Amino acid sequence: MSLTLADIRAAANAMQDQVVQTPMVRAFRLDALSGAEVALKLENRQHTGSFKDRGALNKILSLSEAERARGVIAVSAGNHAQGVAYHAGRLGIAATIVMPKPTPFVKIEATEALGAKVVLEGEDLSQAADQAARLIAERHVTLIHPYDDAAVIAGQGTIALEMLASGDFDCLIVPIGGGGLIGGIATAAKALRPGIEVYGVEAALYPSMSDAIAGRAPRAGGNTLAEGIAVKRPGRLTRPIVEALVTEIFLVSEAAIERAVQTLVESEKIVAEGAGAASVAALLENAERFKGRKVGLVISGGNIDSRVLASILMRGLARDGRLAKLRIKIGDVPGALARVAQIIGASGANIIEVYHQRMHYDVPVTMADLDVMVETRNRQHVTELFQALRAAGYTARLLTESTGGD
Fold this sequence. Notes:
Elements: H1 5-15, E1 24-26, H2 28-34, E2 37-42, H3 52-61, H4 65-70, E3 72-75, H5 79-90, E4 95-99, H6 105-113, E5 117-120, H7 125-139, E6 142-143, H8 150-166, E7 171-175, H9 180-192, E8 197-203, H10 208-214, H11 238-245, E9 248-252, H12 254-268, H13 278-285, H14 287-290, E10 294-299, H15 306-319, E11 323-331, H16 336-346, E12 350-357, E13 367-375, H17 379-391, E14 395-398
Helix pairs in contact: 1-8, 3-5, 3-8, 8-9, 9-11, 12-13, 12-15
C-alpha cells in the first residue's frame, strides 16, 4: 500500500459534512502541568464518540453500488462497531456487527440502536472474526476492518488536516492500537510539514506495535483501562507507516492512564475513555521531552462506562488526599461518636459516611472501631486531622492506602 496526502484529502472531500470537524482547543491547565503549549483534538465529539466514525465512513463511501446492496460486516466490541453501524444505517446499508459473547450489554444495545444486526459469537475477538469470515463467504458482504485498510487509514488521516489547519505544532501525540489512526495522521502531517514529529502511545500492557517494530516476541495481554488500544497484533498495512514516520512510541502505565482520565475531567472538563486519554498520559509522563514545545494531542474517544469514570474520580480524590477513610478506636459509651465528630468538624473536614463496628474480634468489648469517610483539602489536611485526633487521645489509622498518613 502507498497511502498519500492526496488520498487523505480525497477522503476529507468525500466525507465533508458527514463527520464532525471536531474542535481543537487549548489546554491551559495541561500547559502548567507539562511546561508545553498544549492543544487537544476532541474526537470524543464525533457522532458516536470516537474517531472511528471517519475511517468507517470513508471505507463505506468507497464501496460500489453492488457492494452496498450486499451489506457490510465488522468485528468489534467497541467504538468501531458503533462507527460502522451509524454510517451504514444513515446511508441505508445493512450492517452486521460480530461481537464476542462477553461483550457488555450496554455496547450491544448501543450498536443495535444504530440499526445494525449484532451477532454474538466466540469468547474473544479472534473467535468472533472466525464467524465473520464464515458470514463473508456465505453472504459476500464487505468487511470494514477497524485499521488494516487503506480507505480506513485515509479516513483517520483527515484528523491531521484539521489539526494542522488550526495551528503550527512542533509535534503530535497519538494513541496506537492497530495503527490506523497514527498511520493516517503521520502520513498527512509529515507530508504537509516534514519537520513535525509524530509520537505514538500504547498501553504498557499492549505494546504490540513497539514489539513488532523492535522484532520482539509479542507480549500483549491483561486488563487495561485503555481497551480501545488493547490490540494484540498491529496492522500489516500500518506497521511500515509507523516504522517510517513515527519518532518514538511511549508506553504508559495503567496508573498514568487513570490519572490522565481524571486530569482531563477535573482540569479541562473533558470526558475521555482510557484510550482517548493515553496521549495525555504520555505527555505528563514525559513532560521534559515536550517542555516549551507546541504539542497537539488526539483525544481519540469518550465512550467510558459511567461506573468506571465514577470509580476513577473517587480513587483520584483518595490519591490526592481529598478523600480519606479513617479507622478510629473509641469507647463504646454514649457521646463518644459526637466527640469524634466535633474534632473532625473543627479541623475543617467533612464527614461523608460513618460505620460503627463493635464486632471486630480484636476490639475489646468496651471499645468500638469507628470507620469514617471524610472530605479533606489535601494530604496535609489529612495529617492535621490525625494530629487533632491523637491530641484528643484517640488512636486512628488510615484505611485509604494511597493517601499516605498514618
